[in-house]
Amino acid sequence: MDASPPTAPPADAPHPTRLVHTAAALRELPRRAGARAVVMTMGALHEGHATLIRAARRRVGPQGQVVVTVFVNPLQFGAGEDLDRYPRTLDADVGLAAAAGADAVFAPSVDEVYPGGEPQIRIAAGPMGTLLEGASRPGHFDGVLTVVAKLLHLTAPDVALYGQKDAQQLAVITRMAADLNFPVEIVGVPTVREEDGLALSSRNRYLSAPERSTALALSAALFAARDRLAAEEALRARAASVGHAAQHRSAALAALGEDRAAADAHAVAYAAAGPPHGPCVARAAARAVLEDAARLDPPLTLDYLALVDPSDFTEIPDAYEGEAILAVAAKVGTTRLIDNIRLVFGAGRPQPATAHQDSATPQDSTTPQDGTTGQDGTTAQDGTTGQHGTTPQDSRTTPAPTPTAPTTPPTTPQGPLGATR
What we know:
The chain contains twelve helices and eleven strands. By secondary structure, it is of the alpha/beta class. The strands form three sheets. It has a six-stranded parallel β-sheet with strand order 1-4-3-2-5-6, sandwiched between helices. Strands 7-8-9 form a three-stranded antiparallel β-sheet, covered by helices on one side. Strands 10-11 form a two-stranded antiparallel ribbon. Helix 6 crosses helix 7 (167-179).
């Protein structure tokens, strides 16, 4: 039977979640009074997906309608990838979707979505689709956009929600909707993480216990970059408040044998005199963690670590100020995982919040791993907190003549693989 019983309950009453398998049955679903939201997945649903479905429900309200699609799209899998072993758990998926507030689950067959076989005409992702994930998986984003376009036509939503964990996927879908005038609002929602920081993904089930331990390096690297950047921005803010007095203070303290205080003053002076180098610092902090993980047993094999402009996914320069995405992809054993975090560069700008907030409970919308076409689901953005530097007491003294920048930056130890998150 293609659909659950067609009797529709009152709009304000609890109602069963209907499972449909064909486009015709989907069209027969009565539209509710409010907006329709769609959450596209490839199945094997978990708490990341549930959080996204709940976000969709909140978005459209009790009068709206939430449709969850479950479709493992063959067009986005390349040769040697895990299409055949990708988990199919439809019964459990329907139960989870229902508990999270979905009105309907659309689970079409491959023949239903591609009735004539693989489509001869596909949507091309353009230059953005050739970078990072696109470079590692040629043609992947063309397959993603083709199925997303078809599912948007079939489900006809007012709003579609996707996970920020698949940041590049979200970017190309948003661009497609804008460039091709799709009458739908695209919404990105934060990543859901487990207590240890690992981003939720349907692929996590493939990891053995030792592999999972190594896989924690992905999130640890991102958090190390975030924390090092926060320290850098705080130092620059402090330097701005102290001014050139810091260089004179450093020399005076060193003469008195106050080595730790002198080192602190030296660091402030360096930050005051030197140009912004947040992107360089963030990259180095993340790479140090990943290099350590490459020596673990089992090792982490890095595919890419990239710090990119969210608008086009090109690498940002060291003098960049504004929002950026730090993205990482790697293999542990035979399982390929991706993750990312959003960073903001520029002294005095808001910075991401603590790792716990970044990784645990998104406030409103979190992205499923393995979203409609992506490999892994959501990616949470981090909340933001302002950086505030402190002003040394003797900053009230008369500034010394303008110094030159210290010749070497202060030494900053890199955090270990298990860095505080």
